[in-house]
Amino acid sequence: MPLTLKIKYFNTFILREEPTVTTATVLNATVDGDGLPAASSTVVITASNSDIVDGMTVHGPGINEKVTCTISGTTLTLSEAQKIEKGVTLVFSNPTPYPVNATTGLPTEFPANKEWHIEESRIKGGFNEKTVDFGAKAYLVDKKYNRNHRKNAMIYSGIYNSRTGVNDTNQFSIGENITKAVDSIYGSIQKLYAEDTNLLIFQENKVNNALIDKDAIFTAEGGGLSTTAKVVIGQITPYLGEFGIGKNPESFAVYGFRKYFVDKDRAAVLRLSRDGITEISSYGMKSFFRKHLQLVGDDVFKTSGRIFGMYDLHAKSYVLNLNLTRKVEQNKQTFIKETTAVAASSSGAKEINIKSTNNNIVVGMLVESNSLKNNKASVTAVNNRVITVSTNITIIENETIRFTPQQEFLNSVIKNSTNFKTLAFDDKVNGWTSFLTYNPNFGGSVASNFYTWNGANLYKHYSNDNRNTFYGEFQPSTVTVVSNQNPSLVKHYKTINYEGSNNWKAIEFKSPAEDNISYKAYPIPGNITGRYLSPNDGIKFAGFVPLEKKYYANVKINDTTSVTGISALTTTGVKGFFAETILEHQPVNNDKTTNKKKHAELFSVGFNYEQSLY
User: Fold this and answer.
1) Alpha-carbon distance 26 to 44, whole Å?
2) Bridge partners, residue 576, by sequence
3) What digits encode the pLDDT tens for the residues 303-333?
4) Where do the DSSP E strands lie in 439-577?
5) Would the pTM of this model clear 0.85, i.e. be above it?
6) In terms of CB atoms within 10 Å, which of 49, 119, 524, 526 comes out highest?
């Protein structure tokens, strides 16, 4: 019903609606390829809110002025597409405080579900009293005030002083010069690292050095001097070289004054030190990184797009882990462990079809599954995804089949394949010293101890008694040696020797003869596990023999029928310009029992050869 007011004198009265204000939290957000908020007109909130009605004005981070919404359940539709982040709180209010008709724009009657109040312009309501007014506007309203993502700029807040209790870390005044930008042509800022009184700024394609709490002035001759100034970030100076950290800031690691990082787009692993930026990937590993960094994915939000860098204080080395989009060959070895495969179809015969090729399945393994009841079967042949076993077995489609080796070390070489590569760089030798068999999800050093994460589990290295065992899995040590003395001389390799621990064995010895053809020798077993039979012709091998604290073995050529010129020739030694040998250590006691606590040492490897006469 109408409301009548009696007044004693002329005055100004304003009828206002009590504004309805409510809030909601954003559940999901639309992001672009870099993980930053993308413009969208649809927003999902955490829970429905009956106070939110169609036509309300939306306020909050990422919201422009005069944006209204409609609601259906927990889904909001905005009048304009906005960039809104997940988890922010949005405020909803009536678009106008005045009760007007939407069609005519004239005042309306008082709705029963609204609260209203009357404002009087005179203070105290007295006759000829001062009126309420805004007065002179000594400020400027930024109608486009909104969150802005500047990928090449930095911003800093007010100070925090624990002694005086001043805490202005939540204040970012736009009236002060609190931003500092680098050249946007070199991409976004990916990593910041504070060092003493300098700040290192890693962009995608550039590395910069900025002064902290000081600035640079220049003399008439062009020389630079540093001076204290009331600035947080001073002069920015780029390092020489068109290198950056790409989009892999997780590759950054630091030890002392040396910083290590990876520029994937340039296939380079880099070291930043007092002498500037050095490309350490060129120290004998240029082709390796050119090949494998191309296999790292471009999506940094997936594991296959990550390049983890960490520093091992125990071994004083930079450890680099590459996560690849496909499997690559790791190392040749004779060690075999239990593996699994999934059946592609049901079967009741001797052949099992598996869904994907598994190079770890070899002849002689025992076959186990939940559907097999006291039915022992072993692998007799492997042909890609078809596994042939010794007896008819019943396998159900999609069933997981376990293949268990009857012995850990075989007489034949197997090729492992993994979707990662982990390797270490040592500054003392200025080179890459070793490939590693573990695949960490990140890591670092604390108090001279090296830790890595395997999923959600933290693992401390150099703490377990078993050697070469990471995350509970053992892998043997292998060393590849190339003999290339007198490279123009055709040599006849007769013997091989080494200094080190016992029971090293040569699992492969070859020398290139022609294109894609090599002279190969029989494998040479260790001095403890030696004397095994060749599966082809029953030849016995004595293996390495200890003599005067060295281990010696003869080199006997194997399968010469495919090599032109020496077909069906039986001889000792291998012919070639150079020889490539893979040594593997099998940790056993003198009674041939496995002892994984036994350490392995290899000091030197030598070859005895003479000039070839044929």
Assistant:
1) 6
2) 491
3) 678 999 999 999 999 999 999 988 888 888 8
4) 443-446, 449-454, 457-460, 469-470, 473-474, 478-483, 491-500, 504-514, 517-521, 545-547, 550-554, 557-558, 574-576
5) no
6) 524
